[in-house]
């Protein structure tokens, strides 16, 4: 099975975008199934490649069906395909993610919407010492690959109990801590895309290991696991 993304996947997702109904999907279920087989094979290859670089527990390929119960958009199907890869053991925190969609494909890794406890621990670490995280995020490899942290959600001011004038306030205000790399459709279809995904995740490894150390210790550096 090829580890190259095929153009037919974009063709299917574009067609689904224009015909996002249960009737059309039912008529094209065989097409969908064929694309899913190819995509899951690609995601599996990524997991195998990641396991050479990191300790990966497994992967989760997300279903195409949307949960529309609390959404104004009642379109029944996602117009993207995505998969996450979970790091193994309590000592390894964070994870990896790949999303394939026409005109908006990307990979990401890090900590999206961390728990209240994890978010406070991260903020306290940056309040105490932000030099190490800045050194990692500003490294040549991470800047070249990701351009630093993705501009995700952040508070408009300092969190309660933190100094709004703190030198690391821009980090402390963040609600998630993600490294993200976008790809054009042409880059996704390139035979080298798989290698670029693995290479990008490898670049992010020092960041994930640092954050894992933060989240598995207290402010004195004592292990919590």
UniProtKB/TrEMBL annotation:
Top-level taxon in the UniProt lineage: Bacteria
One Pfam family this sequence matches: DUF2461
InterPro entries hit by this protein: CHP02453, UCP028451
Name of the molecule in the record: DUF2461 domain-containing protein
Record organism: Wenyingzhuangia gilva
Lineage: Bacteria, Pseudomonadati, Bacteroidota, Flavobacteriia, Flavobacteriales
